[in-house]
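As promised in the previous annual report, we have extended the structural survey to additional targets. Below is the entry for Pyruvate dehydrogenase E1 component subunit alpha.
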Amino acid sequence: MTTTRKHSDELHLALYRKMFQIRRFEEEAARAYAQGKIGGFLHLYIGQEPVAVGAVAALQPTDYAITTYRDHGLALARGMTSRAAMAELFGKVTGCSKGLGGSMHFFDAEHNMLGGYGIVGGHVPLAVGTAFASKYREDGRVAIVFLGEGAVSIGDFHEGMSLAALWKLPIVIVVENNEYAMGTSLARTLSVEDVSLKAVGYGMARDRFFAHHVLEVYDRIGEAIDRARTTSEPTLVEVRTYRFRGHSMSDPGKYRTPDELEERKRKDPLLVSRGELEGKGHQEALQKIEAEIEAEIEDAVRFAEESPEPGPELLEATTYKGAFAR
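The corresponding structure token record, generated without further manual editing, is:
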């Protein structure tokens, strides 16, 4: 295993900034949801930030990233602005999907973030198709797809795994195992705890580790990305992580004990990074980052509140007589 100590503090600070941005964005999104400013579902990423941040840092800007409905973290890590993300949650026309997608359907073509998808596991074949297109075109791009451990029993996951291995596609399939598929513990949903073993049946490379440190995520997923780019071989990576909130805002999370939750929060990777950087004398840099992010999130909320609603003219293109009918 590659250690985290070889990396510069500058990289660590940059990754801390992204994790802190996602944390503060989602805390304010939760507040707005409770105030009735956001409708529909809201699945928060709080606690899982090092997975998206570490993985995206190992990608190149031209690579593709696809995820499921817990998509705010990946979108922000990939480069979406807090304004576009918050406005989408508020259902405003200035949002990343013009206010029509909402929390589960973030999309950012500029940064090759090809969507959050609401159908569990249904996006895996889409990611595999993206990787197939890259191999066919010989464009050197890698696709990375994120899913929860609850999706590994879905047929689409296995169809995607089968084709990715058979056709040797440049893809990294990342299972973010937060231990509770919706509200059901890992022990009650999977007969084998080690999700990465599913790669063996398809002759695919695999890796498995805990997301205790963002730089370890960067290293481990970086190895899988390098494999995809240099040999066009797929990898299944299981990253054990933990979400501090319920499955969605409507979930009080009573299927786990307060003691378990508090124990996990004491190992919060965001605080681990902060403590480590503070110990290295970067207190002033940390305070500057946090002040800038606080101002950015405050601006994003204000921007979302003041942005206009989508008009009926926006719906025309989405009908069978609109642009998609051509």
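The first strand starts at residue 64 and ends at 67. The chain has a mean pLDDT of 94. These points will be discussed at the next consortium meeting with the crystallography subgroup.
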